[in-house]
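Forwarding these from the shared drive since the link keeps breaking.
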Amino acid sequence: MKQQKPSATAGLRGDTSPGAQTGKQAFTSYFSSDIDKIGLYNGNVLLELSILSFPGREIPIDLILSYNSQKWELVDCSGIPCGEYTGGWRITTGFGAPPREMDGVIPIVRRAADLLAGCTSIPQYDLNAYWMDAFGTKHRYKLANIAGSGSCASPVEPSWIDRTLASLDTDASVYYSGSDDQRTGEKITFKNGNVLQMYPTARLTTPNGNYVVREDNSKLPLQDTLGRTITYETNFSISPNTYYRRSTVTDANHALQTYQLNFEAKESGPIVDAGCHRIEQPGEESAHSDGDHHAGRQHTVE
């Protein structure tokens, strides 16, 4: 296990306070219209644009483009305080994801063992897990006062193996950490009985056994109980500043339909991603989005 020394950045792993919330939070007041919601507590604007939707057995295959207008927050980047933008545009699926990839590819759920102050003999930790759902809502799971090892001067984190963390939100979901250090069997179980398995393959399953499986590279739905598939391609590796993400599905008439999102970087540098600026759907004119989401200003869709 790795050693960890107390630092001023301990616990800065994700801001789930009401003022920092994006997405759809339970028991929160919103002003809503056809495609947008405005959080009355912090003013966050949530837009939802349906790209495609195919009904299925309990779980539809959906692709929705969602946008949150807020917000920058302070997080811990390998022990160094840094900023992270948790809003902007994202392709919405049922699996959820962190706001962005940091330190390379990261799991769906972020985890942090936070050393508690006041050590007298055995180091004590709070285990926190953070998950952002498809609409950008931030969820936090916690297991408090877990004994580590080592000494107060040289504390060692406790193992994450076979831990169950309760939700700090009001959705009654439960996080399970997995049966080994590779997170085998890692999952979130929801109040309605649905299970979101994280590893080795992301899979959303209902109590009746119906499912949707996620494709690892695209992070989008790959196949469901009915055997329907979505093929995915992108030229990001060739052109990371101006690229497309293209999904092809078979419609009810067995015809192939292609949906394409075009991304263009507004700024350069390792912190800033490209923003979606055009949506191409079969038989329709392209929709354009404008604005700089990294500055926290609202996108407009024409």
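-- next protein --
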Amino acid sequence: MTNFIGNNYNEAYDIVDIAKLIKKDIKKTFPQINVSVKTSRYSGGQSINIYIQKLPFNPFTREYILNHDRWQSWRMEEEKSNNNKNISNGKLLMYNQQYLVLEDNVDKILQSYNYDKSDIDRDYFRTNFYGSVTLDSDYAKIYLNKK
């Protein structure tokens, strides 16, 4: 059973209010980056997704930049051979350490407004929101086209 309540969680906050606070916290903590914070409501809950849109550094590893055209076919081959070690470490192969640390810290800001009282053993899910932090795909193309 998960029992997590973030430091900034407040049951009075609506998902839109939380998204605004998250964006403000990110700007304050990381003024050198730009993010887009999107909310969504649906029958199974709600979500906040953060898209990193501008960085002062290249987020990709050199190996990935040089070989990104073959990346998708490589991942498919790894899945066929059941070599999940590389699949699960895909982020480690794509992104450099500087980006991974930044993404993790942005996710900590996101989760600080969340709670999770789920019990997966009983197939019971109760969370304030679902969420993710990813590099904006349009922004990523800028670096991938600069070989």
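Residues 83-88 have pLDDT under 50 and may be disordered. Strands lie at 4-5, 34-42, 45-54, 115-116, 130-135.

- D.
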